[in-house]
Amino acid sequence: MTLVRASDHLALVNLTDQALRVRAVQAASTYDLDTLVTLMQAYMTTASRKGARTSRKTLDAYSLAVRDFVPWAQANGVTLLRPGLRDGGRYVAHLQTRDSQGQGKRGRLSPATVAQYVAGARALYRALRWAGATEAQPFEDAHVPPDPTPGIVKNPPYMDEIDAALEHCDARLAALLLLCAHGGLRITEALQLRVPDVQGTRAVVHGKGGKTRVVPLSRRLRDALRALPALGEDGHLFGWTYPQATYRMQKAFRAAGRADAWRGFHAARKHSGTRLYSATKDFTRVGLFLGHSSVDTTRRYVAVEQDDVASEVEGF
């Protein structure tokens, strides 16, 4: 039974405390997926730490996780409002031993995917507690082992793939790739860029979590942006959604004979971080450039040669 449309999560926020509790209890008791997803979204956008600034990407990822966890709970005899002490650990073990169900993917779920699914399930229980439906915290002691393989190894930066792909991009697609590979922008930041944001040799970037930063632009990137007319009165430079941009860039990689090298736009962002670190040897400056709040995050974006300090230790 679907009581609230999944897209209308704010409708739950306007209910009285008692009505919200009743709605949440009914949804959990009947394993009503749509309402539980809606409840989680309502909590994330109004009561979580980031509130209304919670990204669409996070909401989509957590919604997918809830749609995975709830059917598993129902099939395995888990009462959502009164789960057993070990049910959280049971779900983690299930994820760790389950085969990937994505298109073109084989083998077990990656540790990152397991962590994402568990984070979504935890968010569901925070939402149920927020609604007054339960005090259960089945994932409080559930341990999700970290991935021992560094992200920079699993998804290294593009190197010569950038120039190879650029030869098969039109002007607008080339500018988008350069914004990631030279400007260090996240793909969502690049797609939102407007003509007024480009100010001479710099661009004002409206980034993750509502933060704004000023990014220096390479000569090549400046030339690419100057050649682009705005797409409308609002001044946007790109009219693509993320899937549309991905489709076009994958096509360019295939045309360049690099189809197997495509690893998403994030590898282009790592390209800029790696090149800048090679020039500066300063993680703090690279982190500011990329818009990171922690240098620890920046280290995961930079490919450093294992013998990077060989010349320094030569005279020890």
TrEMBL record:
Residues of the Core-binding (CB) domain: 31-129
Annotated keywords: DNA integration, DNA recombination, DNA-binding
Pfam family, one: Phage_integrase
Gene3D superfamilies, alphabetized: 1.10.150.130, Intergrase catalytic core
SUPFAM superfamilies xref list: DNA breaking-rejoining enzymes (SSF56349)
GO BP terms, alphabetized: DNA integration; DNA recombination
InterPro entries membership: CB, DNA_brk_join_enz, Integrase-like_cat_sf, Integrase_catalytic, Integrase_recombinase_N, Integrase_SAM-like_N, Tyrosine_recombinase_XerCD
GO terms for MF: DNA binding
Domain Tyr recombinase: 152-314
Protein's name in the database: Integrase
Species per Swiss-Prot/TrEMBL record: Deinococcus aquiradiocola
